[in-house]
Design goal:
The chain is built from 16 helices and 23 strands. The chain is of the alpha+beta class.
């Protein structure tokens, strides 16, 4: 049984791992985290999935406990701008499509075509984003009372209800918050440089040697060293499988832009704005905006990318220092080899278009606890773990490739090439199927990867680049109930937009609570 854990690398991956393991096992294991004072974290993954709530619930944390400390805001959706054509926008909300007479409302919408905006016609959340509303009333109640589970310790795989929002936060501040959480619960924190990694004749790691703190030995080593992959890739020689043939964006440039939240409106969503060689993210945090241009180096130079980003931000970008990042897009062939598990960027990374970086970390931690090594069964546990983690990343890759292929935009070489790049296995066949029958559980990527059919539907109907046909059966069915449901959504959205507090109003209230706790 692994009783002694050494985590190499801090940041979001390292401290999420250390905190979660302590929450899961308590005094049954010892956890040592060693991180360098001289290695900065990437810190661009500031937006999340709605499933992140399971992580905080597992640690016993409520929103008021951590959001203020991490400059947290709410994220109800991703707003896509300019992907269909310049000037067009749509939302990918955290909201499943309703069902009418046994048929998805998405199919009814495709049949009836009440407007060109599926998201606004079939989603309450799109209206809340447009109105800049928080997802909770000032008393703390969710706008959707049927949703429960805030207090339940569970993992992402057990989610049955679609929670209506995720979070946006400063990843560096979250790492600092979790540092205190973890060390208060017994995590040994070593600030030092790892100068050597030792392994025995079997290839099992025995210890890491540090510059000042000596040797750190353990039963299980967790590699959270980012794109460098110090333990898994460099020491153990595990190959890295690139996704760049189908997802060419390999660089980013980022800015931290001050934001006066009381006077500058901001919505409860992340924005992905398509550009000539990629896209720009805009993430409103409490007091600043995180923004950056994710682009393909084959189509754009770093200097061009920085100019584009500064022009997009406007005068607020003047005199701000830009952070240029090279991204390793793909995954390690296996994320767990011998007694070494890679979590975070050392395991894999698929560009941040759907905020999957922290999702990958959370999934890997949850699966590690479920596959915890204990002796003679370890090889079978490793195979199961590696299969699950690989499937998650491969599935996300497929979903993101769909974004580019299905985007109607084709006004330059970058966007035209998106229609001819190699596709993952089976995606072309799936796309053919979706053109005559919208995605369902049987036709999306078959293994858990965080995205449900409603996400595929929202993207296909929003991107506008695929020829689609409604089911023939709907022409012979009474559409009265579907029309009634569409009107109900419109009325519910209007009522909630009037009654819910603004995003800023609720966050100011929450941050006051946090400052008193």
């Amino acid at each position: 049984m692994a009783r002694s854990v050494v985590i190499v690398g801090g940041g979001t991956a390292g401290w999420m791992t250390a905190s979660y393991l302590k929450a899961a096992f308590g005094e049954q294991i010892s956890v040592t985290l060693v991180e360098s004072r001289n290695v900065s974290t990437i810190g661009v993954g500031e937006a999340t999935f709605s499933t992140i709530r399971h992580f905080f619930a597992y640690l016993g944390l409520e929103e008021a406990d951590w959001m203020a400390a991490c400059h947290g805001t709410y994220k109800l959706a991703i707003r896509y701008e300019n992907w269909r054509e310049k000037g067009h926008s749509f939302y990918h909300p955290f909201e499943r499509a309703r069902v009418v007479d046994g048929v998805s409302l998405a199919d009814w919408w495709l049949h009836k075509r009440p407007s060109d905006d599926y998201d606004r016609d079939c989603s309450v959340i799109a209206a809340l984003c447009e109105a800049g509303r928080a997802p909770r009333f000032l008393e703390g109640n969710l706008f959707e009372r049927s949703l429960t589970g805030d207090e339940i310790r569970s993992t992402m795989a057990e989610q049955t209800t679609q929670f209506p929002y995720a979070y946006q936060f400063d990843a560096t501040l979250l790492a600092g918050f979790l540092t205190k959480y973890g060390t208060d619960r017994g995590v040994r924190h070593v600030l030092d440089d790892v100068v050597d990694v030792a392994a025995d004749e079997r290839g099992h790691l025995t210890h890491v040697r540090t510059g000042e703190s000596g040797e750190l030995a353990g039963d299980l080593f967790i590699d959270c060293t980012g794109f460098r992959g110090v333990l898994l890739n460099r020491k153990l020689g595990v190959p890295f499988l690139s996704y760049q043939d189908s997802l060419p964006n390999d660089r980013a440039v980022a800015l931290r832009v001050p934001l006066d939240m009381a006077t500058q409106p901001f919505g409860p969503y992340t924005t992905a704005s398509a550009q000539d060689a990629g896209w720009i993210w805009t993430i409103p945090l409490f007091g600043r905006i995180g923004t950056g241009y994710v682009y393909a180096g084959d189509y754009c130079t770093p200097e061009e990318a920085e100019r584009t980003l500064r022009a997009h931000v406007g005068p607020a970008a003047d005199d701000l220092e830009a952070n240029h990042i090279r991204m390793r897009v793909g995954r390690s062939e296996d994320s767990w080899v011998n007694n070494c598990v890679a979590i975070g960027l050392s395991s894999g990374f698929v560009e941040p278009l759907e905020s999957t970086g922290i999702f990958f970390i959370q999934n890997a931690i949850e699966q590690l606890v479920k596959h915890w090594p204990g002796g003679r069964d370890d090889e079978r546990l490793r195979r199961s773990y590696n299969r699950q983690v690989s499937n998650v990343m491969d599935g996300v890759r497929e979903f993101l490739v769909l974004h580019y292929y299905a985007a109607k935009r084709a006004d330059n070489a970058y966007w035209r090439d998106a229609k001819t790049r190699p596709m993952p296995d089976s995606l072309a066949e799936r796309i053919e199927q979706w053109q005559v029958k919208l995605p369902d559980e049987d036709t999306i990527f078959p293994y858990y990867h965080g995205f449900e059919p409603y996400s595929y539907i929202a993207m296909i109907l929003g991107l506008g680049g695929l020829p689609l046909r409604a089911p023939h059966s709907l022409a012979m069915m009474d559409d009265l109930a579907a029309g009634k449901e569409l009107r109900l959504i419109r009325d519910q959205a209007a009522s909630l937009a009037e009654r819910l507090p603004s995003h800023y109003e609720y966050l100011a209230h929450l941050h006051q609570q946090g400052s008193r706790s």
